[in-house]
Amino acid sequence: MSILDAKVPAGPIERKWSEHKDHIRLVNPANKRSIDIIVVGTGLAGASAAASLAEMGYNVKSFCYQDSSRRAHSIAAQGGINAAKNYPNDGDSVYRLFYDTLKGGDYRSREANTWRLAEVSASIIDQCVAQGVPFARDYGGLLDNRSFGGAQVSRTFYARGQTGQQLLLGAYSALMRQVGKGKVKMYDRHEMLDLVVVEGKARGIIARNLVTGELERHGAHAVLLCTGGYGNVFFLSTNAMGSNVTAAWKAHKRGAYMANPCYTQIHPTCIPVSGDHQSKLTLMSESLRNDGRIWVPKKLEDAKAIQEGKKKGSDIAEDDRDYYLERRYPSFGNLVPRDVASRAAKERCDAGFGVNRTGEAVYLDFASAIERYGKMEANVHHIDNPSPEKIRELGMKVVSEKYGNLFDMYENIVGENPYVHAMKIYPAVHYTMGGLWVDYNLQSTVPGMYVLGEANFSDHGANRLGASALMQGLADGYFILPYTIADYVASDIRTGPIKTDTAEFVEAEKSVRERIDKFFNTKGTEPVDHFHKRLGKVMWEKCGMARNAKGLQEGIEEIRRIRDDFWANVRVPGKPNELNQELEKAGRVADFLELGELMCKDALNRNESCGGHFREEYQTEEGEALRDDENFAYVAAWEWTGEPGKDVMHKEELKFEALKLSQRSYK
Amino acid sequence: MGNMKLTLKIWRQADAKAKGAMVDYQVSDISEDMSFLEMLDVLNDRLVREGQEPIAFDHDCREGICGACSLFIDGRPHGPSRHITTCQLHMRKFKDGDVIHVEPWRAGAFPVIKDLVVDRGAFDRIQAAGGFVSVNTMGNLVDANAQPIPKLDSDKAFDAAACIGCGACVAACPNSSAMLFVAAKVSQYALLPQGRPEAKTRALNMVEQMDTEGFGNCTNIGACEIECPKDISLENIARLNREYLGAELSKE
Amino acid sequence: MARQGLFGSSLIKKYWMALTGLFLISFLVAHAGINAMIFFNDGGVTFNEWAHFMGTNLIIRTMEIVLFAGLILHVVDGLMLWRQNRAARPVDYAFAKHNANSKWYSRSMGILGTLILLFLIIHLWHFWVPSRNIVGSLEPYGSDAAGRENLFALMIEVFSNPVVVIVYVLGCFSLFWHLLHGFKSAFQSLGLNHRKYNGFIAFCGAAFSIIVPVLFAAMPVSMYLGWIK
C-alpha cells in the first residue's frame, strides 16, 4: 500500500485554482498542432473537452460507441445543472455550493476539487447560453432557477425536463463545428477495447470498428477517458443499455487505479420494476420532489390492501398517510439528498408499507401541489370562490407545464394517469461516484491518461447531489482539463506522431483479438444477458442500497461462480468481423463480472457508512449513516495485480482545511 | 409473464451489400407491460439459444431521448402511438394475435448497415455544416443574464431544440426529406440572439449539405410533423424557408 | 452532389413551385371569371366579347407567353422533384400506413398534376388551338348576335359529347385535389406560416379549391344538359 499524492496546489482554497493555472506550463499555438489527443466518449465531458482542445489547436480523435456522438447518455439527464450564480438573490455563493456539495458527498470528496467545481460553475452557464442552449427563462427574459435536493437555495438552471439533452447538444454542436473544420476526427460506432502504454505513458488505444469488426490502432500523446459510469453492473439501472465500464476497466488493467468503486448512487424517484422482462429503469427527475410529496400508508393493513389491489392510494385518508421524509427531516423535507431519500424508501418498504404488488414502491403525490397551484392561479385570474374542480383544473395546468413530459412518460410506461393516481416510485441505480482515480489535474496513475466526468472518482465523494453531474462533466471538459493537459503535453512537442507499429500496440491488439476469439470459442448455451441479469441481482442484493460484511462476502463468492459459469457457458453467435451486438455485450459483461467483485471488496473494506455506501453495521440509532472519520477519511484506490479480486489498495488521505467535518444532518 | 402471441415480420439483411428480405417470427408470452424493444429482447434471447443470429437494432437510452432507436413498426415510424419513440412504445398498444411489420428507416441517405440498423451519419454531417454558434470555450464570456431573451422566443427555440435526431421525419416522409430535422436546428438558432450573426450562412450551408446527402425535397406533405416523437412543428420548416430565401436573395 | 443554379437547391425548387403555383392560381381566377360569363345565358355575347378582348389585347397576349412559361416551369420543376424524391428512397417499405400521417392528395401531387396536364392538352386542343388559328379556326362557327367570332358556339359543340363532359369533370376533380394541397402549400413554402393566420389560409385554400373547380365543372355540365344555350 502506498499513499497517493493528489498534487493539490498549496495556498488558500479560494486561490488554488487560479494560482495553479497561472503557473503550469503552456503549449504555444504552433506546437499544439503537433500534439494528438484521443478523447473516448462524447458525453458532456468528452464532447466539451474534444471541442475545447480542438479550438485551442490540438489534433483530436474522438470516439464513441453510439451511432452518433449526439447520443451519449448525458442526454438523458432531466433536472438541471447547478451553478453559483445567485440570480434569485437567496444568498448563494461559491462557498455555499462548495459546502453543499462536500456535505452532500458526506465528506468523502477531495476538498480542493470540489471548490474548483463550484468556482467554475458560473462560467458553464455563460458558455452554454452563448452556444444557444435554450435554458428556461422567466417573463422578463432572464434565466430561471429551481431548487434541488440537498440545497436550501435555488441554484439549478434547467431546460424543461431535458437539461442534459440541451447541454449535450450544445457541446455536440461545438464538437461538430470542429469536425467540420477538420480539427476533430470523429470515430462513431467505435469501442475502445484497450489502452496502449508505451514506456509508462498512455500513447494510444485499440478500438473496434463496430460496423466492420476491424481492430484499429490509434496513437496519441495523451488519452482522455470520458466514458461515464458503470451503473450497468447492476443490470437494471437508469443508464443507457450500452453504458459500460470497459474502457475504464481496460485502463485499470493497464495501471490506472480504481477509486472508491463501491460508491453508488441509488436514485429515489424511478419507475418501479414491472417484471422479469425489464431491461432498464426509467428515472423521474428529482425536480419532481419540489412539488411531489412522498408517502406510504401509516397502517400496515392499508398497505396490505393496496398491495393486494383492494385499495388505492386515494382511498387512504389524509391522517392515515405517513409523509415519512417530512416527518423525519423537517427542515429539508422531500428535498433531502438522494441517498437519504432512497434509504428512507427502502426502510418503509422493508417494513411492509410498500404500495404496489411487489411491495417495492412508495407514492409521489402531486395532489396538494395541484391544489396549491390551482388556488394561486385562481387568484391570478381573479376567480372568486373557485370550485374544487376549477382549482384542480387550474392546478393541473401548472403541474403539466412544469412536469408534463415526465408525467406523459410515466403514463406511457406504467399505463396509469399520474394526474389522477399518485405516482409510484422506487429507488434505482443511477450514478457511480466511484471511478478511476485522478489527481488535481485529472490525470490518472497512468501518465498521459486523463479521466473526466462520471468516469473519474471525482468531486462528489460518497454521494452526488442532484444537478451536479452535468456541472462536473462540463467543468472538467470546458474549464479544467484544457488547461491542465498542457502541463503534460508540453514535454511532447518534439516527440512527433506516435507510431502504432511498436511492440506495445502489437501486443495490445493481440490481447484484444485473443479475448474476442475466446468468446466465440466458448460455444456455450446461454446468451450474455443471462449472466448479466444474475450478476445484477447479486449486486443489487449484496452491494446495493444497504450492505453488510456477510452479504458482501457471499456476493464475492457468487460473482466468482457467475464469472466461471460465464466463461464456460456463454454463447456469442455470429462472427467477429461484422456488426455483432451480442459480442459487444459479452465484452462489457465480462468486465462487469470483474468490476462487481472489486466493488464488493471495496464495500467490505470500508467499515463505515457514508453517503451512498450504507453498511448496516454502522448506523446511528435513528438509522442514519455513521461515518468513521478517524479511520476512513481516505480514498481507496485499487491497483490491478493481474487477477480479478486480487487488487491492492492504495490510499489518498482526505484533508479538510476549508471546513470542519461534522455529522451530516438534514433534520 | 404475459400471454400475448404475435406474428412479427422483420426485415433481415446480413450487411450493407446483402439483399434483405422480410422474415416471419412467432413470439408468445408477451406481457403488455413490456416495451417493444423488450419484446424484441425476448425474441433475440430465443434466437441466440436456438443458435440463430439475433436481430440487430439500434437502441441505447431506452427512455426516449437519445434518438438511437428507430424502427418502422406496423407501417409507421416509432409505431402507432404519437409523440413517443420506439423504446417508449409498450405492448399494451397491440392485441393478442396481431401481425406486426418491423422495418428499418428507408432512405437512400440512411443506408442499411445490418437488419434494422441504418447509418444516420448524414445528420452529423449536416450539423457539422452549420448547426452551431461559433463561440470558443472561454471563461470570461459575458454574463448569461446580460442579454434577456423574450420568453416566447426562448420557448420556441426550445421546442425546436427538442429534436433528438432519430430520423423519423425522413422515414415518414414519402420524399425521404430531412427538412424537419434541418429546420429544427436552423430555427433554434434563428430564434436566439446568439444565433443571429450566422443565421444566413447556417441556413445556406445546412441546406446544401442536406441536398448533397441525397435526401428528397420537401413538398409540405406534413407526415414528418405527425410522426415526430418530439412534436417538432412544421412552423420550423416555414421558418427555414424564410431564412433561406432571405439568405439566398441577399448573399454576395 | 450539391445542386446549383436556377433549380439549384431543394429549397429553390420549392420556391419556384410555390411562385408558379400561385401564378397559375391567379390565372385560374381570371379564366374562371371570364368563362363564367356564359352563365349570363345570352347566347354567348358577353362571353365572346371577353374572349375577343383576351385574344387580341397585347398585354394579355404577352401574359399568355408568361403563363405558358410559368406552366412549363411548374411542370418541369414538378418532374424534377418527382424524380429526385423517388430516387431518395431506392428501397420502399414492404408495409406502410401513409394515411395515418398524411393526406393521399398531398402525397400524389405528381400524379394529380400529370392528370391535370393531360386534361390541359385535351382542353387546349379543344379551344386554344382553333381560337389561335393553329390548327383549324373559329370560322366554321360564324359570328354571334353581336357579330363577334363565336367561341361560345365551339363550346356548345364540344360539350355536346358526354365523354368530353366526363373528362372535363374528372379534370376538375384532379384540379380540386391538386389545389387542396397546393394552395396552402405555396404559403408554407414561402415561409408564410403563422399560428394566427394559418386557419384563414387553410380556409381560403379549401374554399378556392372547391369554388373554382365546381365553377369550371358547371360549364360543360350545364351546356351538355342544355341549361346554357
Topology diagram in text:
The complex is a heterotrimer of chains A (667), B (252) and C (229).
Chain A: H1 13-23, H2 29-32, E1 36-40, H3 44-56, E2 59-63, E3 81-82, H4 94-104, H5 111-130, E4 145-147, E5 154-157, H6 163-181, E6 184-187, E7 190-198, E8 201-209, E9 215-219, E10 222-225, H7 246-253, E11 258-259, E12 264-270, E13 293-297, H8 300-307, E14 321-322, H9 324-328, H10 338-350, E15 362-365, H11 367-380, H12 388-414, E16 423-432, E17 435-436, E18 449-451, H13 469-489, H14 503-522, H15 528-542, H16 549-569, H17 581-605, H18 629-632, E19 634-639, E20 648-653
Parallel strand pairs in A: 1-2, 1-10, 2-6, 10-18
Antiparallel strand pairs in A: 3-5, 4-5, 7-8, 8-9, 11-17, 11-19, 12-16, 13-14, 13-15, 15-16, 19-20
Helix pairs in contact in A: 1-5, 3-6, 3-13, 4-5, 5-13, 11-12, 15-16, 15-17, 16-17
Chain B: E1 4-12, E2 21-30, H1 36-49, E3 72-73, E4 76-77, E5 99-103, E6 112-114, E7 117-118, H2 121-128, H3 151-161, H4 168-172, H5 179-190, H6 199-212, H7 223-227, H8 235-250
Parallel strand pairs in B: 1-5
Antiparallel strand pairs in B: 1-2, 3-4, 3-5, 6-7
Chain C: H1 10-35, H2 45-56, H3 58-87, H4 104-107, H5 109-131, H6 151-158, H7 162-189, H8 195-224
Assembly type of the chains comes to: heterotrimer
Number of domains of chain B: 2
Helix content estimate of chain A: 25-40%
**Distance, first to last CA of chain A:** 39 Å
Q: What is the correct CATH architecture of the largest domain in chain B? A: Orthogonal Bundle
Rg estimate of chain A, integer Å = 25 Å
Q: What's the architecture of the largest domain in chain A in CATH terms?
A: 3-Layer(bba) Sandwich
CATH superfamily of the largest domain in chain A: FAD/NAD(P)-binding domain
Average the pLDDT over all residues of chain B and give the rounded result. 96
Low-confidence stretches of chain A: none
Total helices of chain B: the number is: 8
Number of helices of chain A: 18
- CATH secondary-structure class of the largest domain in chain A: Alpha Beta
Low-confidence blocks of residues of chain B: none
What number of structural domains do the residues of chain A give?
Answer: 2
Structural class of chain A: alpha+beta
Biggest sheet: strand arrangement of chain A: 6-2-1-10-18
How confident overall, as mean pLDDT of chain A? 96
- Binned, the helix content of chain B reads 25-40%
